[in-house]
Specification:
Chain lengths: 240, 447, 70
């Protein structure tokens, strides 16, 4: 902890970079986890790799996701320039710093934590109870994405491209999953598909209407060079 | 409870309980020619012999009497009823009794006939069993398609309530009537508010059934036998039938017999004697189907001398099932008959288990092709048939597999003929096995 | 007392994902529709770890490993 503090005091805001980098990586991993989970749920049976490998990848990436999510949270709290407490990281909407966005972030991470913890004991929990919680992953993912978009980096073309890619990937596999879930329950599947398609539409409109222009907080540092630096340093910052 | 009333302790008096042809359950009807209402029932048998005290932690005398009698279930599996009673009686907490009067087997009529002619024997048996196992309620499950019977039984229950005969209330239920909705876990699931579709075991109903209580599920005929055993004791019960298969049993005889119908016969009668009860064969027989659509084909020549008991029939790869015997005349085509029944069974699947949902239609289609004289892929058919047993939540695929496998064996000659020369003349004639108007149940049909 | 372990498939839950057969081919095969066929239900000690892994891998928890004392 003191290591982080020293880092925070010494460098050109390494914690701030670490936070953004770990957050970006966590979102990418989360997207990959979700896509793989959906592939398992939809009984994707590829020719070249075994099905259990997809399932194992889903589980392993989920652990990695949580690791980066943890890092993301720790660096956020540790950053003296960002007034977020432990308390605010656990309970939604109690922080005053960029309240709605952080609230969403907390909601998403709490849901992911619930998904992960129940998965760890799912043999004991039984399928129905485990799956009931696991559906939360579908809610957590868009919430995490919405939380990310107003971020400092969101105006970078690269970052925007990443988000768009994530969105496209998830929407595509969700539609595939709904197609695979048939036949029957047409109404339910159609409305789920509409919801899936509404997420990018809402997000697009939201980005255009301009809330990405951050109010308060640290200034944006839109230079790819520094971005690269920060992501290289992030792991050191996170494991003192 | 095993001690017998004084008037009946003499041999001749006990013999009076056995009507023409050794009938017991149908005795009243055979002597009066009409259904027994409550008065007549009470005149003949008196009220159900309830134990004066029900002590906890001791096995009820009735349980021991049924064990000693050697009664086995008449719903199809021929499981020892006494052992089932004891298991439920020893289970923790208050129990529930379910009387299975669903009779989903299209070739069977015996439960319908029994409930019509001697409803109070069934109700006696259910209530006596309930008291013996410590149950506080009896559920009588009947098929929704038999509205008259439901009304008749509801009235019978009402009369008994007015006379204060039963210490345990009986509820009459009307369930959807599909082939597997009469399976015991289907009944439990329906009574618990769900679909009348089978559920995965364990837990078995005797551990955790209706309202999560230990649940005794017995066929209505089994319960009627219990009503008589409670009154006249195991020794009397064993005076009919054979030592290893005591008592009488109801059978539904159809096909090429002179007087198709429901009869009561002593266990262990050779099969040709069983057919003689229905006036004997009306045409030269090629084969018999034992146990109904769920059962086994036997070539007529190997079947006729076999005693009608579980163990003797098991030796030739068959079983008594629910007492269905269908005599197939030589002129009929066993393959065509089997193909139609398999199609029916495939449509009747609860569509819950992959191997049953996909395997049964595949087997039925293969069989239809064979019956129609197509070249077919016999090897594939045999492999598919062999992969059905034990892979569903209920025994539905096992039954269909048995039917198909025994057909392939018994009609092997015909199979060769069909493959070589196309369908035989028997394919043209009217079907012997009536599958009725069968539609595949779906969605809300199960509730 | 030595414990016996036996495999069981809940056929209503099983969706024919087939992961179990990939992880435990010694005891589990698949039929033509991808549903498991148990070659044997009893699990020998040498395969116990593999069986546990297959049970954990089943996406719908349809594969069970029951323990019963001999
Ligand atoms: C934060 C971490 C996780 C996320 C975001 C996540 C997300 C998802 C998603 C979106 C699905 C698709 C559900 C469906 O459409 O049926 C899924 C399925 C699945 N996940 Fe996860 N998951 C996570 C962690 C885990 C873990 C740790 C396990 C380990 C047991 C696991 C096991 C599964 C399985 C077996 C399925 C397939 C479920 C089915 O077929 O019904 N997941 N996951
Ligand atoms: C597919 C299927 C259908 C069944 N249908 C009936 C039925 O119609 N009537 C019946 O009494 N038992 C039926 N059974 C058997 C019951 O599950 C149960 O074993 C029986 O009611 C127990 O009573 P018993 O011990 O008196 O025979 C069926 C079983 C299966 C697998
Ligand atoms: S085996 Fe067939 S009939 Fe029985 S529960 Fe499964 S799908 Fe339904
Ligand atoms: S992994 Fe599970 S769902 Fe898939 S076939 Fe095996 S038991 Fe069935």
């Amino acid at each position: 902890m003191t290591g982080i503090m020293q880092f925070a005091a010494s460098g050109p805001r390494p914690l701030w970079y670490a936070t953004r980098a770990s957050g970006t990586i966590a979102l990418l991993l989360l997207t990959a986890t979700a896509v793989l989970g959906i592939a398992v749920g939809g009984r994707y049976a590829p020719q070249r790799i075994a099905r259990f490998e997809i399932s194992a990848l889903h589980r392993n990436l989920s652990v990695l996701t949580l690791a980066f999510l943890g890092l993301h949270i720790v660096t956020t709290i540790a950053d003296p320039l960002v007034p977020v407490s432990w308390w605010a990281a656990a309970v939604p909407f109690v922080s005053s710093y960029r309240a709605p966005w952080l609230g969403l972030a907390t909601v998403a991470s709490d849901m992911l934590l619930a998904v992960a913890v129940t998965s760890a004991v799912r043999l004991r929990l039984g399928r129905r109870r485990w799956k009931a919680v696991h559906w939360l992953a579908y809610a957590a993912w868009p919430v995490a994405l919405v939380h990310a978009t107003p971020g400092t980096d969101a105006r970078l073309p690269l970052q925007l491209g990443l988000y768009t890619g994530c969105l496209a990937a998830v929407v595509t596999v969700v539609c595939w999953r709904l197609y695979r879930a048939g036949p029957g329950r047409v109404a339910a599947r159609l409305s789920a598909a509409l919801t899936a398609l509404a997420v990018p539409a809402a997000l697009g409109g939201f980005l255009f209407s301009g809330p990405t222009h951050a109010r308060g907080g640290a200034p944006a540092t839109p230079l790819t060079v520094r971005y690269g630096q920060s992501s290289a340093r992030a792991p050191h910052g996170g494991s003192p | 409870m095993t001690e017998q009333p004084a008037v009946l302790s003499s041999t001749s008096a006990l013999d009076d309980l056995t009507g023409p042809h050794g009938a017991r359950l149908l005795h009243g009807w055979l002597t009066t020619g009409g259904p027994a209402d409550l008065n007549e029932h009470l005149n003949r048998y008196g009220p159900p012999p309830l134990p004066r005290t029900t002590r906890r932690r001791t096995v009820a005398p009735l349980v021991r009497a049924v064990e000693d009698a050697g009664l086995t279930g008449r719903g199809g599996a021929a499981f020892p009823t006494g052992r089932k009673l004891r298991t439920v009686a020893e289970a923790r907490g208050p129990a529930v009794v379910v009387a299975n009067g669903m009779e989903s087997e299209p070739a069977s009529r015996k439960d319908e006939v029994l409930l019509a002619l001697a409803p109070h024997l069934v109700l006696d048996g259910a209530v006596l069993a309930a008291v013996a196992v410590g149950a506080q309620v009896v559920h009588l499950c009947l098929p929704r398609t038999r509205q008259d019977q439901i009304r008749q039984l509801a009235e019978a229950v009402q009369q008994r309530r007015q006379r204060g005969i039963d210490p345990v209330p009986t509820q009459v239920h009307a369930l959807p009537h599909h082939y597997v909705s009469s399976e015991e876990t289907s009944l439990v699931s329906w009574l618990n508010g769900g679909d009348a579709r089978p559920a995965v075991t364990p837990p078995r109903p005797f551990e955790k059934g209706v309202d999560s209580r230990p649940t005794l599920i017995d066929n209505v005929e089994t319960l009627a036998h219990i009503a008589l055993i409670a009154r006249y004791g195991p020794t009397w019960f064993r005076r009919a039938g054979r030592p290893e298969a005591p008592g009488t049993t109801l059978v539904t005889l159809s096909g090429a017999v002179r007087q198709p119908g429901v009869y009561e016969v002593p266990m262990g009668l050779p099969l040709d004697a069983v057919l003689d009860v229905a006036g004997g064969r009306s045409a030269p027989l090629g084969a018999v189907l034992l146990g109904g659509f769920f059962g086994s084909w036997l070539a007529a020549r190997e079947a006729m001398a076999v005693p009608f008991t579980k163990s003797a029939l098991a030796e030739v790869g068959a079983g008594p099932g629910a007492g269905v015997v269908i005599a197939l005349p030589e002129s009929a085509c066993g393959l065509v008959e089997t193909a139609r029944v398999l199609e029916y069974l495939a449509a009747q699947s609860a569509q819950q288990c992959g191997p049953c949902r996909l395997g049964l239609p595949a087997v039925a289609a293969d069989f239809a092709e064979l019956a129609a004289g197509g070249a077919g892929d016999l090897e594939r058919l045999e492999r598919r048939v062999g992969l059905l047993p034990g892979r569903g939540a209920c025994r539905h695929p096992d039954g269909a597999s048995r039917l198909a496998a025994t057909a392939l064996r018994v009609f092997a000659e015909d199979v060769r003929h069909h493959v070589r020369n196309g369908p035989c003349a028997g394919a043209e004639r009217e079907p012997v096995l009536g599958v009725g108007a069968s539609h595949a149940p779906e969605g809300r049909d199960w509730r | 007392m030595p414990k016996r372990h036996s495999l069981r498939v809940d056929p209503i839950s099983c969706d024919g994902h087939g992961l179990c057969a990939e992880l435990l081919p010694e005891l589990i095969g698949l039929d033509e529709w991808g549903y498991p066929v148990l070659r044997a239900t009893e699990v020998p000690g040498t395969l116990l770890d593999h069986a546990r892994r297959a049970v954990a891998a089943c996406p719908v928890l349809a594969l069970r490993l029951d323990r019963a004392s001999r």
